[in-house]
């Protein structure tokens, strides 16, 4: 039963039995948690420095409470002779949708999108300035790995939750990729915040609750995992609020 203003989300999960672990609760602040998206590829020789920079955000004091980094691997460089094992046509399409909505000027790697807007500052002075976050509401995520996830969003007055889209992502960390061909041939890449799966579902607020299957995913050698849920406007991709944190086990 929902006892406060908001919507509830019930997410079904299918994870390996070994992932069954203790439950945890993740909660965002009322202020907007900003998404830092990197579009990257194993086939792009200029991407490893951006990947390393993104990985350093793991030590950022505002991780999970002020910002959430994510690395979406695109597939449009695979033709150079090396298939990126993390790449997905859906992630390439996500970047193209940002271009279609006007959020970014062109499709390229490495490409950064911060809170739904293109950020080229990394190329000039790679220091992320988040600025003051607006108050949007609290997003809470109750996770029981291997069983289910329940989330609730309590928006601030004036925040319209109609027509929002729920996005669920699993992130992988401490990944090592040996590249056998293409522009990064012979290199071993160390990667963090890698998107291993991304599920989306339109939020049906009139029903109060809705379900979103958590797709099966491969750990791909990841030593640690994190879960992220964010609500966004489906047409523009602009995020409203996000919550994330480490998965146990």
UniProtKB/TrEMBL annotation:
InterPro entries: DUF1223, Thioredoxin-like_sf. It comes from the Bacteria. This is DUF1223 domain-containing protein. It comes from Candidatus Thiodiazotropha endoloripes.
């Amino acid at each position: 039963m929902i006892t406060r203003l908001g919507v509830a989300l019930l997410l079904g999960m299918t994870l390996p039995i070994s992932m069954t672990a203790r439950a945890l609760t993740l909660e965002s602040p009322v202020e907007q948690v900003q998404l830092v998206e990197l579009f990257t590829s194993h086939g792009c020789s200029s991407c490893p420095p951006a990947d390393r920079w993104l990985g350093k955000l793991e030590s950022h004091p505002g991780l999970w409470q002020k910002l959430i980094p994510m690395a979406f691997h695109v597939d449009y460089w695979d033709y150079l002779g090396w298939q990126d094992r993390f790449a997905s046509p859906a992630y390439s399409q996500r970047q193209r949708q940002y271009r279609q909505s006007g959020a970014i000027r062109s499709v390229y790697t490495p490409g950064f999108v911060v809170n739904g807007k293109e950020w080229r500052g990394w190329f000039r002075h790679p220091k992320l300035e988040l600025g003051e976050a607006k108050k949007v509401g609290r997003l809470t995520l109750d996770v029981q790995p291997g069983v289910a996830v329940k989330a609730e969003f309590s928006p601030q007055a004036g925040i319209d939750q109609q027509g929002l889209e729920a996005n669920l992502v699993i992130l992988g960390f401490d990944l090592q990729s040996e590249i056998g061909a293409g522009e990064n041939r012979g290199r071993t890449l160390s990667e963090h915040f890698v998107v291993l799966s991304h599920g989306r579902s339109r939020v049906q607020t009139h029903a109060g609750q809705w379900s979103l299957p958590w797709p099966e995913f491969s750990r791909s050698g990841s030593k640690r995992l994190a879960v992220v849920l964010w609500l966004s406007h489906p047409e523009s991709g602009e995020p409203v609020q996000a919550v994330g944190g480490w998965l146990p086990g």
